């Protein structure tokens, strides 16, 4: 079940109470709850980040509903971004320390399966450090991608840039929707599902366009280098006919 499906299940009266209780717990502790929950998710806590983001938006709605609670909603987005980056950076640091031995990491190691590690490495082989950006939208290997980025020695500044740009696409949308549709979390979840699908399509199309432009640029460079190598050497005028 995907993170979005778990989120929608939490709004269903017949669903298991666990996810709903987590969402309410996050909302009860508001900003601190969102930060700690997102750091825990970065460390492998078995729950989608959307639970914290929706819970955070709902917490703001309870005290500062739309449309007048913009400052508090923006503060929640900032706190959520900080929690995401801190949790992800810890994973990057652990990957840098243990390298290709994820089984040495307690609790987190069991999520870093060989199959997921291989998929994450494949992303880096194809996209380099940009794999950190794309990995944030791949629910199954998100954490693994951050771990592998550390083991591959991706610079922390580059990691934070790629991860931060990706988080800026998804985090504000999730918090905003829960805040705006605070009375109907199910409706917020459905809107979030549609937007996540749209984000994934946009990211995929952007990746294809970027790779196509890169390949064409590289092909032009190779053709230009070949033309220069094939051109006859021009001798200075004074040496002609020597």
- Average residue pLDDT: 76
Q: How large is the share of residues in beta strands?
A: under 5%
Low-pLDDT residue intervals, each spanning 5 or more residues: 1-17
Number of helices: 9
H-E order: HHHHHHHHH
Give the helix/strand class.
Answer: mainly alpha
Give the overall silhouette: globular
Helix share bin: over 70%
Overall radius of gyration: 23 Å
Count of domains: 1
| Number of extended strands | 0
Oligomerization category of the chains in this entry: single chain
Characterize the biggest β-sheet: none
Distance N to C terminus:
81 Å
Give a brief outline of the structure.
By secondary structure, this protein is mainly alpha-helical.
Task: Give a structural overview.
By secondary structure, the protein is mostly helical. The protein has one domain (3-227). 74% of the residues lie in helices and 0% in strands. It is built from 9 helices and no strands. It has helices at 3-10, 17-42, 49-63, 70-98, 114-127, 131-135, 142-151, 156-180, 185-230. The longest helix has 46 residues, at 185-230. 36% of the residues are buried.
Write the layout of secondary structure elements.
Blueprint: H1 3-10, H2 17-42, H3 49-63, H4 70-98, H5 114-127, H6 131-135, H7 142-151, H8 156-180, H9 185-230
Give the key terms.
242 residues; 74% helix; disordered N terminus; globular; mainly alpha; 9 helices
């Amino acid at each position: 079940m995907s993170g979005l499906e778990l989120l929608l299940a939490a709004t269903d009266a017949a669903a298991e109470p666990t996810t709903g209780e987590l969402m309410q717990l996050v909302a009860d502790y508001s900003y601190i709850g969102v930060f700690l929950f997102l750091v825990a998710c970065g460390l492998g806590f078995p729950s989608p980040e959307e639970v914290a983001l929706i819970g955070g938006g709902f917490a703001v709605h309870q005290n500062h509903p739309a449309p007048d609670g913009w400052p508090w909603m923006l503060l929640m987005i900032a706190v959520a971004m900080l929690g995401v980056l801190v949790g992800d950076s810890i994973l990057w640091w652990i990957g840098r320390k243990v390298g290709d031995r994820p089984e040495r990491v307690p609790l987190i190691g069991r999520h870093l399966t060989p199959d997921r590690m291989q998929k994450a490495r494949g992303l880096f082989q194809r996209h380099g450090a940009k794999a950190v950006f794309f990995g944030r939208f791949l629910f199954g290997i998100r954490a693994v991608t951050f771990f592998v980025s550390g083991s591959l020695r991706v610079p922390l500044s580059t990691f934070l840039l790629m991860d931060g740009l990706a988080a800026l696409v998804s985090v504000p949308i999730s918090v905003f929707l829960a805040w705006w549709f605070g009375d109907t979390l199910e409706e917020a979840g459905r809107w979030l599902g549609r937007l996540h699908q749209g984000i994934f399509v946009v990211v995929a199309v952007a990746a294809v366009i970027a790779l196509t432009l890169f390949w064409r640029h590289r092909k032009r460079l190779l053709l230009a280098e070949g033309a220069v190598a094939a051109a006859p050497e021009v001798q200075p005028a004074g040496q002609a006919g020597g």
